[in-house]
Structure to design on (1276 residues):
């Protein structure tokens, strides 16, 4: 019954968008309550759908659109957990925004754009085909652009918005190339489609993966990965995400931490069978993810802007999720569950961290951590909720991050045993750094002396309440949901006509799959294979005990290190020991690996813009030049020839007479010779 | 009776003089006079042929031509006077607002 | 059903042009009515249009000059009708946008109406003679619009526009004559009938490949210059920069479409019978237009010139889709014609509005206008987003269909180049938006404000249209699909349709 109204999950935020856009400025608080209500209704609907679907149903509705494409709704376990998370987190953030944006003259615009974002994100999640997913994907990007540039009078905000759009656009183009390649491959199969089936629908894609040539699969997978890399801020397209912090903090929390940036991870999870079947597909995912996780974590160590620290942290954690998915090459569909678990958990504690930082910024009126310090004395609620978030992010035992992130590290170990240990090493190092930079931030902001004069008060309760709710989830979600979550998500691909054993053969990881399944690869249904794999890994942990407890040591060690550097009560070392502008190596870290210089100043502004200018010169001098040259030639010739028309009648008469004489002479001579 | 050839010779000489003047002279009034010479050489021919051939058509044409020449001279001299008032000269080389 | 709908649709703006020429300051009301009726007619035709029929519809055919085989034949199918719809929509919106024109308004509106006559004629004529007459008629109002209402270098631009496109048209005319004099009807007479001649080109005995190659090249040149495609595009930026806003809109939205229409109507039916090298040549031209236009746009300092080069880039997609020769790509290219037609309106209107509100179009001199012109900023943003191919708006559908359709037949590296251009396209649009509209408001612009309501109205109507066709492309892709299948088969003749 709820499923019949599934379209309203997107429809209501769209309505809220239109209302806020056209009449929002006449409503109290810019119509923010509409956005909250629309999203909350989406949460209620999602819960209703969950109650109907759980444990073993999926919802699939579809109608034709144009040409060979359709629009439709597909809610399976994977989509459902995303729907629940997004509606829940976004409802809280919208509520918080009602307090945060109060008094901003553009608040109705904010809520309109936020509502549009919500609609696009939810549409992306339950799209039943790749084209529709791409459309919402781009809309999400548009909203991100609009919201980063929300304070458009600030030149840095306008520039950051442009950078975000363009960088993700690079990924999106690869994504589109992937879709087009996939479509053409499927079209060339001449599949006999049943009524209501379309080529780009996920079930159809899953069912025909085995017929597509493996080389093509890899190309498609790389294309889709390109899209995911752009959206989820993975190396080398991560450069936009730290800059995106120019937007209001609620935007950072909602879009650039909890929801939108996870779209890339969601895409890979959604297309997991394809990545699994594509040779090197998941390897590429793992490599990108693990590298990004460590790379971004190192940059998080040196940033002074509190939101940029969190942004680097987000990039790093998204790297964890990607790496988690990539390990699917070794552990099969189980990887989807693990990565998604971290995605959901991360969205809770990262939203919490951002909102806490927003609360601090609201009071201190700056993003610069060097001007904060000692804030904890005045903002107890903020301090403790942020502590929960930080512990969770650092992976402190029993907090959500402990279960989710450490599970990724553990399966990365399995991946290491089967294929390559590099991702595992990168992830462990990244985990250490995560704990360090998180607590560097927390100690710098909340402890020590006040380093500037700021408003000493707690934020209003409309902002505190969402913090508390998120804190509860950031702490408890891991313990509460761990077991059920994995098994529920593991069942996801069992709903489709997809045989992971066959895919494994194409993808070149047949051996691992068979080993993990614990029996010959003869099972007819993939879900059984997947569950078999899971049961196996649960029954007898493949990892030695030190691998199991290593993450705990890593987290505690990181927190300890951070306190030695940044907590004034136990401070032993000075941070300049590691970073500073003294020598090139430490400066490299401080400057963020000169990425701005390389990507923006050199590549975009010199190479691309320079070649555009060269094109312009060619166009003027050559392509248009030959034309002007031709016309100048004709004109020059005419300038000479027109002298004949002197305008002096006497000349004409002379010419006439001479002409007559010549004619007479010629005719006479011709007669003489006998020609006439 | 004077032979026809002499009339034609006279007309030819007049025509040649007129043509020569038309080509060489710069003074507007002289040009007008040259044009009159051309016209009248034609008139002489018309009348002469008419007289030698018992047919008055030629003389009628000559009368037309004289009337036309009078009208032409009237308009022409009016233009010359107007030009003189405007430029202070009727030297056609110096009057070149419409050409180069 | 209205009989003679097409003739009526062409006659009324013609009459309106004559009336508004003598109507003085009332000309705009005449123009509004004279463009409203064709719009109503075309909407009525849309209702009656049979989207699955491969036949020409609303056909009218009368003898005109029987001694040389000239007939007055008009009719539309899935190729022509979307463009007819586009012409009537754009014409009326342009007239509304120019509501405040004070310099010789009677001539201004008369010329705009005359333009509508010309383009409607081109999109409906089924007789080469008639087609060419309309094709040339279009030049005249545009020449005067640029020459009389244009910017400082209007003389240069108007003459360049006229001569460049006219020379190409003459080459096309020669090719048409070659068709005319080569083909003889069974009874020995000659004909200008478009469909008959095009069908005859399939016959190797009448048109040997060597002859057909030359004819084809001539026709192709006429259309590529009009499109315009690299390297024949240089008249376009000059014409656009100097033309008044309405002139630019009509030029980009309708006149360029004549070139694309020629590709579908005339070039594609011949394409299978000529040398295969042509396919490669056209594909290279298309790809170069796309990427080169995008790069040039990135280098421009004048916002109107930027938009002009973006037209070159976007029209490249039309050429690309056409030459890729799959149902999907041709359909997409047709849709791109329609979509670019509406989107480019809002771009040029934005540039024009900036010009007359702020007084300059140089991007570097602008800044922070969104602060003072919030409504305009939203519309301009929407227009730019549509132009850079944002999903949900019509441009994306077109580009996606063209790329999807072309992928199968064209080599991969061409695709890579096109994908590169998509990023570049986004770059110049966003860059212009950022420099012109965002950032702190410059002091000298403290007094600017949102433009007149009629300007905002016509721009927002176009945004609504791009959304409608972006969300529901099926409204016209159906008939385009039918036409695309038809293009890939031998051309229908009038006699087969039972008209003659």
């Amino acid at each position: 019954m709820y499923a019949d109204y599934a379209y309203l999950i997107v429809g209501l935020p769209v309505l809220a968008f239109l209302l806020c856009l056209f009449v929002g400025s006449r409503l109290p608080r810019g119509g923010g309550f509409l956005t909250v209500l629309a999203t909350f209704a989406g949460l209620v609907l999602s819960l209703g759908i969950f109650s109907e679907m759980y444990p073993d149903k999926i919802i699939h509705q579809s109608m034709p659109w144009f040409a060979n494409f359709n629009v439709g709704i597909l809610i399976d376990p994977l989509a459902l957990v995303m729907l629940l998370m997004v509606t829940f987190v976004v409802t809280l953030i919208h509520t918080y925004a009602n307090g945060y944006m109060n008094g901003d003259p553009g608040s109705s615009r904010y809520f309109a754009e936020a509502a549009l974002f919500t609609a696009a994100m939810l549409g992306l999640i339950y799209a039943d085909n790749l084209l529709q997913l791409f459309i919402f994907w781009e809309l999400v990007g548009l909203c991100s652009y609009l919201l980063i540039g929300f304070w458009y009078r600030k030149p840095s905000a306008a520039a950051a918005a442009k950078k975000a759009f363009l960088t993700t656009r690079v990924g999106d183009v690869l994504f589109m190339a992937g879709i087009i390649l996939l479509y053409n491959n499927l079209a060339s199969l001449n599949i006999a489609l049943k009524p209501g089936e379309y080529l780009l629908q996920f079930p159809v894609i899953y069912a025909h993966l085995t017929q597509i040539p493996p080389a093509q699969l890899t190309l498609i997978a790389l294309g889709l990965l390109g899209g995911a890399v752009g959206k989820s801020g993975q190396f080398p397209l991560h450069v936009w995400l730290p800059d995106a912090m120019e937007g209001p903090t609620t935007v950072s929390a909602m879009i650039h931490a909890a929801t939108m940036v996870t779209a890339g991870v969601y895409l890979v999870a959604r297309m997991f069978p394809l990545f699994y079947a594509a040779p090197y597909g998941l390897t590429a995912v793992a490599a990108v993810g693990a590298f990004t996780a460590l790379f971004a974590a190192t940059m998080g160590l040196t940033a002074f802007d509190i939101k940029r620290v969190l942004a680097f942290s987000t990039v790093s954690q998204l790297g964890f999720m990607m790496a988690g998915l990539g390990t699917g090459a070794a552990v099969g569909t189980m990887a989807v569950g693990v990565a998604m678990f971290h995605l959901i958990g991360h969205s809770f504690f990262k939203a919490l961290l951002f909102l806490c930082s927003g609360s601090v910024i609201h009071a201190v009126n700056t993003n610069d951590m060097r001007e904060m310090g000692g804030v904890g004395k005045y903002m107890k609620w903020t301090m403790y909720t942020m502590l929960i978030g930080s512990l969770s992010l650092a992976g402190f035992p029993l907090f959500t991050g402990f279960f989710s992130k450490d599970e990724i590290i553990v399966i990365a170990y399995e991946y290491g045993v089967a294929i390559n240990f590099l991702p595992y090493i990168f992830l462990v190092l990244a985990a250490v750094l995560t704990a360090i930079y998180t607590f560097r931030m927390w100690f710098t902001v909340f402890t020590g002396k006040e380093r500037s004069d700021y408003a000493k008060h707690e934020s209003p309760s409309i902002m505190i309440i969402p913090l508390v709710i998120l804190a509860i989830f950031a702490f408890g979600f891991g313990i509460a949901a761990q077991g059920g979550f994995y098994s529920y998500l593991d069942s996801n691909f069992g709903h489709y006509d997809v045989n992971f054993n066959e895919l494994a053969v194409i993808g070149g990881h047949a051996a691992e799959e068979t080993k993990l399944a614990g029996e010959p690869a003869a099972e007819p249904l993939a879900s059984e294979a997947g569950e078999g794999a899971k049961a196996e890994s649960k029954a007898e942990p493949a990892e030695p005990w030190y691998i199991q407890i290593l993450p705990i040591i890593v987290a505690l060690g990181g927190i300890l290190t951070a306190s030695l550097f940044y907590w004034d009560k136990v401070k032993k070392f000075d941070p300049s020991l590691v970073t500073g502008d003294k020598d090139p190596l430490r400066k490299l870290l401080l400057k963020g690996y000169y990425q701005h210089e390389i990507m923006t100043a050199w590549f975009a502004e010199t190479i691309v813009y320079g070649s555009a200018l060269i094109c312009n010169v060619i166009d003027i001098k050559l392509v248009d030049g030959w034309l002007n040259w031709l016309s100048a030639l004709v004109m020059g010739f005419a300038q000479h020839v027109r002298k004949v028309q002197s305008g002096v009648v006497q000349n004409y008469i002379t010419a006439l007479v001479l002409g007559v004489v010549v004619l007479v002479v010629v005719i006479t001579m011709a007669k003489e010779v006998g020609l006439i | 009776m004077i032979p026809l050839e002499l009339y034609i010779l006279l007309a030819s000489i007049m025509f040649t003089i007129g043509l020569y003047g038309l080509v060489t002279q710069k003074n507007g009034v002289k040009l007008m006079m040259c044009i009159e010479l051309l016209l009248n050489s034609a008139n002489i021919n018309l009348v002469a042929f008419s007289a030698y051939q018992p047919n008055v058509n030629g003389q009628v044409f000559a009368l037309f031509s004289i009337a036309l020449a009078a009208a032409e001279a009237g308009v022409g001299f009016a233009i010359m006077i107007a030009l003189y008032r405007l430029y202070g000269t009727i030297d056609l080389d110096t009057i070149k607002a419409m050409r180069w | 059903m209205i009989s003679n709908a097409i003739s009526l649709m062409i006659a009324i703006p013609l009459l309106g042009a004559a009336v508004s020429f003598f109507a003085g300051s009332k000309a705009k009301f005449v123009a509004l009515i004279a463009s409203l009726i064709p719009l109503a007619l075309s909407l009525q035709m849309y209702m009656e249009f049979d989207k699955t029929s491969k036949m020409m519809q609303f056909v009218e055919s009368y003898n005109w000059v029987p001694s040389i085989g000239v007939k007055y034949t008009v009719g539309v199918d899935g190729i022509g009708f979307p463009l007819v719809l586009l012409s009537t929509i754009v014409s009326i919106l342009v007239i509304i946008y120019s509501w405040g024109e004070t310099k010789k308004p009677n001539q201004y509106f008369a010329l705009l109406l005359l333009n509508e006559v010309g383009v409607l004629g081109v999109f409906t004529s089924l007789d080469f003679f008639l087609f060419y007459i309309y094709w040339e008629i279009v030049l005249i109002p545009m020449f005067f619009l640029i020459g009389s209402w244009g910017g400082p270098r209007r003389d240069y631009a108007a003459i360049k526009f006229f001569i460049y496109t006219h020379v190409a048209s003459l080459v096309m005319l020669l090719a048409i004559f070659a068709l005319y004099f080569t083909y003889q009807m069974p009874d020995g007479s000659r004909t200008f009938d478009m469909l008959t001649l095009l069908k005859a080109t399939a016959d190797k005995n009448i048109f040997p490949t060597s002859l057909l190659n030359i004819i084809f090249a001539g026709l192709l040149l006429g259309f590529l210059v009009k499109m315009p495609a690299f390297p024949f595009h240089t008249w376009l930026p000059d014409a656009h920069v100097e033309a008044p806003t309405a002139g630019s809109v009509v030029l980009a939205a309708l006149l360029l479409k004549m070139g694309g229409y020629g590709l579908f109507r005339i070039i594609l039916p011949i394409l299978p019978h000529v040398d295969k090298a042509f396919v490669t040549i056209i594909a290279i031209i298309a790809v170069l237009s796309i990427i080169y236009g995008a790069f040039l746009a990135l280098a421009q300092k004048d916002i109107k010139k930027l938009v002009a080069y973006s037209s070159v880039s976007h029209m490249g997609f039309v050429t690309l889709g056409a030459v890729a020769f799959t149902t999907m790509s041709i359909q997409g290219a047709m849709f791109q014609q329609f979509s670019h037609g509406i989107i480019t309106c809002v771009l040029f209107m934005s540039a024009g509005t900036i010009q007359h509100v702020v007084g300059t179009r140089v991007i570097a001199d602008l800044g922070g206008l969104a602060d003072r012109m919030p409504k305009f900023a939203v519309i301009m943003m929407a227009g730019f987003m549509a132009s850079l191919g944002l999903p949900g708006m019509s441009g994306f559908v077109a580009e996606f269909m063209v790329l999807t359709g072309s992928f199968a037949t064209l080599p991969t590296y061409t695709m890579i180049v096109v994908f590169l251009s998509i990023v570049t396209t986004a770059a110049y649009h966003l860059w212009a938006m950022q420099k012109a509209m965002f950032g702190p408001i410059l002091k000298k612009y403290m007094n600017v404000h949102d433009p007149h309501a009629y300007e905002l109205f016509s721009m927002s109507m176009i945004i609504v249209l791009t959304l409608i066709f972006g969300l529901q492309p099926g409204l016209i892709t159906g008939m385009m699909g039918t036409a695309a299948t038809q293009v890939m088969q031998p051309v229908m003749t009038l006699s087969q349709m039972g008209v003659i």
User: Anything to note?
Assistant: Chain B has a mean pLDDT of 90. Chain B touches chain A at residues 19, 22-24, 92-93, 96, 98-100 (CB under 8 Å).
